[in-house]
Amino acid sequence: MENVLFCWIFFTLGWTLTDGSEMEQDFMWHLRKIPRVVSERTFRLTSPTFKADTKMVLDRVCGIECQKELPAPSLSDLEDSLSYETVFENGTRTLTRVKVQDVLLEPTQNITTKGALVRRRRQVYGTDSRFSILDKRFLTNFPFNTAVKLSTGCSGILISPSHVLTAAHCVHDGNDYIKGSKKLRVGLLKMRNKGGGKKRRGSKRSRREANGGDKREGTKVNLERDKAGRRRRKESGRGQRVAEGKPSFQWTRVKNTHIPKGWARGGRGEAALDYDYALLELKRPHKKKYMELGISPTIKKLPGGMIHFSGFDRDRADQLVYRFCSVSDESNDLLYQYCDAESGSTGSGVYLRLKEPDKKNWKRKIIAVYSGHQWVDVHGVQKDYNVAVRITPLKYAQICLWIHGDNANCTYG
């Protein structure tokens, strides 16, 4: 049953459409020239207090009909929102002002960018459709190995050898950095075999002593016992691959954190849900395969209208939880869906698998960051959604700038 389940999951993860070249063309990553986000000037700010609560609280909501009537943001508004704070490991903080170049301003079609009430009930809709990934063959391989856990309780995703993308509210509540984020750490999932090396060596010495100190005799007895032990484990462990070891986290300190000013208002306006994303730079690079960023396509360009993400939901005791679902609605900056997700999964990277142009292979990329549950005013009626913040061309350019330190590598995305 387990093998059938995981084959079905990977069939879903690797699903492709082969109904003709025209449909295949629809589900491709299309490289495009992106706007330029250029650092203009950096200021030193006072150190934060790190006293904010860990839960996200936004106060009011603008629904679908009112948001569509809002004018497009001006260039100065965009530059203000895309300017960013950086907080360093020692607690110091800076603000970097940016200039935006080569951007085409379009009418906004957002459902909501500001304010919503946090739902305090379960974030599972009807039948729970989440899957706990337990088999180490899946946990330690792409794409599941890209999911990480934050010491603040959220999730994140590896997007370079040294960078993790997550939700901004996992480290900042819009006014101040949350408790515990001063010594922020990122946990990379690994498998711990039963019995460490030191334990085996100690056990071996004990067995030699029990056999009168005869090295050759002790070795012979040990080999026979090891063979018998392996045979018993093989017979009793069939169909239970997870028995080979238990998952654990390898924790790494965060060197610095970048948050867009659209979120980190510091009491000078409301945090905008459109900017609920942050980038963490690790103190030590990892050697795992990471997932690249991609610009979020419209719902019509999603294969089957589906999105996928994996995170560490708090109700499943450090298990990696995978889910997929269809997108119900979209705005310029947000995806609205009903993927089952409990607290702890916020900050997960939402990804797609599309075909690369002029190539036969398909590639997964991050197209959004899962933000959490929101109530939305739709024609005067409160509706609840699970919301993800889309990677737009401007956000792609900004995150690329954070990773590389300049915009030289951020021309196309």
UniProtKB/TrEMBL annotation:
* Compositionally biased residues, Basic residues: 192-207
Give the Pfam families listed for this entry. Answer: Trypsin (PF00089)
Q: Cellular component terms, GO, for this chain's entry? A: extracellular region
Recorded hits in PROSITE patterns, A to Z, give:
TRYPSIN_HIS
Q: Which GO terms describe its molecular function?
A: serine-type endopeptidase activity
**Highest taxon of the lineage:** Eukaryota
The name this protein carries in UniProt is Inactive serine protease 35
